[in-house]
Structures are given as structure tokens and as C-alpha cells.
Amino acid sequence: MAKQTLIVQDTPITVIKRGEEDYICLTDMLQAKDGDFFVTDWLRNRNTLEYIGIWEKVYNPDFNYGEFATIRNQAGLNSFKISVKEFVTRTNAISLQAKAGRYGGTYAHKDIAFEFAMWISPEFKIFIVKEFQRLKEEEQKAIGWSAKRELSKINYHIHTDAVRANLVPDEVDAYHSSLIYAEEADVLNVALFGMTAKEWREANPGKKGNMRDYATINQLICLSNMENLNAVFINEGIPQRNRIHKLNKIAIQQMTVLEEVGNRKLLK
Q1: How far apart are CA 187 and CA 240, in angstroms?
Q2: C-alpha distances in Å from residue 199, one per residue of 185, 189, 195, 211, 252
Q3: CA gap 73, 46 in Å, rounded
Q4: Is the separation of the CB atoms in 235 and 166 below 8 Å?
């Protein structure tokens, strides 16, 4: 199960995935509320139940609204108290869940969790919403980077096929074949990054992987384009010294355009 952590006003709060939806730990959030309170104190409130009931009606076709009405009618009585587990069992609710074991605690769908945050304090709600939005933005950036990295890997196969078909002699052994592939990979590295793979490793002895693992999204987009272009140039028989100059000019032009597009988006 994927787990992430929000830090809101020095309080660590666990976020987990249930299917495609985010659920936030109410038990963790309680640490930010002054006094001795429990999730059940919030759940027994009539306004809380009304909100959950409306949410479930909108998003949960299997919600037992009849059983929920019975529970809601008891709200406000001094004797009324209900646990999350009992509420979920009786109503078939999906907005809340009580988990045992690893990542144990009471969790709520983010829509409900933000209402719970308001019960803690208006200030706390503002900060948790802000931190959650930051987390989602970082998540989207990571997804975008991974997608571009995979695209670059796919295009790399196109590139190596062109190298194999045009530059690797039929009788050459595996070792010398690998040198040819590495040399052509460095054509792209020098054109885009300004250094070979070996030069990057020597300049970054503490880093794992290679320079492409540390590339920006814009660099990966440019690299994918260059892999395709270099494959075309190789198939056309253009000498390496000419290809590297053409690719470098293309890299400069494309990176300039990509950076300008990114800056325009930031200014909006």
C-alpha cells in the first residue's frame, strides 16, 4: 500500500491510497487538537453526520441510507456514541475506514478529512489543504518525469537499432560492439549535456545511476527527440563529427523553446 506523509504544523499525518482515492489519517490529525478528544467525539456530531451522509449519497451507490437515517436521528442525544467501525459496518460507508496493523488508525477520504481538519481548527484546515496540494503537485511532477524517462528509454531502442544496422560490423565481438554503442550514446550526451558519461561519473562520484537519471523533464523531452533524429542521421550515412554539431544546435534550440514555454506557464 502506497504511503505518504504530510507535515502540518509539525504534525506528521499519514496519507494512503484506497484504489485511486487518497485517505488521510484522522488519528494522526488529532495530535494537533488541544485537549483529550477522540474521532468518535467528532462523529457523533449531527453536522458531521449530515455532511458524511450527503457525501456518501453522491459517491457511494451502495450506501445504506435507511440505516444511516436511524443513526442520524440519534445524534444530539447525550447517550449517543458510535465508532467508525460500527458506522461503516451498518451503513456500508466508503468515506471512513478503521485500519488495524501497519498504518493502523482511522482514515477518511480527503473530502471528509478536510472537514475533520476544520473541527480541529480553521487554521489547521488551511494548512493541511495547502500541504496536500503541494504533495499532489510533487506527485504529478514525478509522474511526468517517469513518463518522459520511459519515453526516452523507448526511443533509445530506436537509436540502438540504427547503430546496430549501420555502424556495428557483422564480425565484431560483443566487447567492441558495446564500445560503439557507448560512443554513440555519448554523441547525444555531449550534444545535450556537454559531457560524456565517463566525464559525468568522474564529476559526480557520489551519485548513483547516470546523468539521464538526474535530467530535468525538458532535457528528457529533448533527449527523446535527439535519439530519433540521430537514428535518422545514422541511417542517412551522415558522419559522426557532422551529426554531433547538428544535434548540439538542435539541442540548444529545443531547450530554449522548452524553457521559454515553461516560463510562460509560470507567469500565468
Answers
A1: 8
A2: 13, 10, 6, 10, 20
A3: 9
A4: yes
User: To the nearest 5 percent, what fractions of the chain are helix, strand and coil?
Assistant: 65, 10, 25
Do 186 and 196 meet the contact criterion of CB atoms below 8 Å apart?
Answer: yes
Cβ contact 93:56 at 8 Å: yes
Task: Give the whole-angstrom CA distance, residue 232 versus residue 163.
Answer: 10
Sequence-distant (6+) residues with CB within 8 A of 235 are 162, 165, 166
Instruction: Tell how strand 11-18 and strand 21-25 pair up.
Output: antiparallel
Given a contact cutoff of 8 angstroms between Cβ atoms, the answer to whether 181 and 167 are in contact is: no
Cβ atoms of 43 and 75 closer than 8 Å: no
As to burial, measured by CB atoms within 10 angstroms (0-12 exposed, 13-18 middle, 19+ buried), residue 199 is: middle
Q: Domain locations in the chain?
A: 3-120, 136-267
Question: What is the grid cell recorded at 158?
Answer: 530506436
Burial of 10 (0-12, 13-18, 19+ CB in 10 A): exposed
- At 161-175, the pLDDT tens digits run 667 777 666 666 777
Give the mean pLDDT of 121-138.
88
pLDDT digits (tens, 9 = 90+) for 190-212: 999 999 989 999 999 988 888 87
Q: Say if residues 135 and 17 touch (Cβ distance below 8 Å).
A: no
DSSP at 34:
S
Which secondary-structure segment (H or E) carries 188?
helix 174-193
Q: Which residue, among 262, 267, 6, 17, has the nearest Cα to 134 in the 3D structure? A: 6
What is the SS3 assignment for 230?
helix
In three-state secondary structure terms, 154 is helix
